[in-house]
């Protein structure tokens, strides 16, 4: 007995293979070719503009790839007579389906729209250091639905884009990454303020890695309580990530200098 391949099934199978191959090639082209062209364009931009463009660029690439997959899926449904009528019915009732899907996935859609708005409005960019509610870290990725932060202790915080657009975001590096490292030092309330300023002034000037181009703020008497006089010591550092190490170093130096001069509180408190 001789078996003859059905011409319709054969043609449909060929179309499926072609559609799958085209989708794969398009996804790879978007990822490889567009990335290569984009890298050349990004290399010609300044650091601030590069972060802004890269944030939008990554999100648009993901949207384009998702559209390719969606169009490919529709084309596959039209490849077989058995599914063609179903695909036509789905597309014909797209308004009803859209409402149903939109209601069922309203949170996901809201996060997606919020991600697009973040990429356009740029309240934060890749590489920015931001504080959102109780989370602070460096922006690693702005995805279609989530934004990922890397904290100082190398944890990852995933924030839904909808929550991000509705929260108060403090961007520590959007305009200028330079930050002020400041500590508060407590001494006995009856201390000679001029002597304390003289002892603490070198602490900020000698801070390793401080910005020499910016003047060192004066040591000031910032507060008086019933038992303590509180002095502030500050210095400018290049990046928000340098603030915590700078504060720790200044506390240690202030504690040593005041201890040698006998000007610490009885409890040895050096608050900052």
Walk me through this protein's architecture.
The protein folds into 3 domains: 8-92; 121-171, SH3 type barrels (Roll); 179-260, Alpha-Beta Plaits (2-Layer Sandwich). It contains 8 helices and 8 strands; from the N terminus they run αααααββββαββαββα. Helix 1 (7-43) packs antiparallel against helix 2 (47-77). The chain has helices spanning 7-43, 47-77, 81-92, 94-104, 106-121, 161-165, 193-205, 243-260; strands spanning 129-132, 135-142, 146-150, 156-160, 169-171, 179-188, 220-224, 228-237. With 272 residues, it is α+β, with helices and mostly antiparallel strands. It starts with 6 loop residues before the first helix and ends in a 12-residue tail after the last helix. The strands form 2 sheets. A 5-stranded antiparallel beta sheet has the order 4-3-2-1-5. A 3-stranded antiparallel beta sheet has the order 6-8-7, with helices on one face.
